[in-house]
Amino acid sequence: YRLEIAIFDFELKVETRLTSGGEITDVKVWVNYELKYSPLAIYTSETDHTVEVESTFIRIIELDIYEYTFVRWEDHSTNNPRTITIEENTILTAYYKVKYVGSISSIGDV
């Protein structure tokens, strides 16, 4: 028998924020093609990882509709997905711009 033990030395955090500074939660994030939601923290080994965030999504807040669009990472890279090498605890922050799309003027019977 052969016993293999995975050693997770580093923490990878992915956060999503507005370019104006506010946090956005529950944004789709893929780490090595596995779907997760922001903010997230995983423990991982020293290796290359592919990280991707949702490019564009819509949120309805009260009756207002907003469109969120990925702009850049904290290091000004616009690659999405991107490949990073984890050699220490790492925090990646994805920045989004938000645009008001309109309002739901009425809701019919469902």
Indicate the low-confidence ranges by residue numbers: none
Secondary-structure element series? EEEEEEEEE
Average pLDDT value? 89
Quote the distance from N terminus to C terminus.
60 Å
**Proportion of helical residues:** under 10%
The biggest beta sheet, please? 5 strands, mixed
Count of helical stretches = 0
Strand order of the largest sheet: 4-1-9-7-6
Q: Strand pairing plus helix content: what structural class? A: mainly beta
Rg for CA atoms: 17 Å
Share in β-strands: over 45%
Outline: elongated
Q: Give a count of the beta strands, DSSP E runs of length 2 or more.
A: 9
Summarize the structure.
By secondary structure, the chain is mainly beta. Helices cover 0% and strands 56% of the residues.
Question: Mind sketching the topology for me?
Answer:
Blueprint: E1 10-18, E2 28-31, E3 34-37, E4 40-44, E5 48-53, E6 56-61, E7 64-73, E8 82-85, E9 90-103
Parallel strand pairs: 1-9
Antiparallel strand pairs: 1-4, 2-3, 2-5, 5-8, 6-7, 7-9
Quickly list its features.
5-stranded mixed β-sheet, 110 residues, mainly beta, 4-stranded antiparallel β-sheet, 9 strands
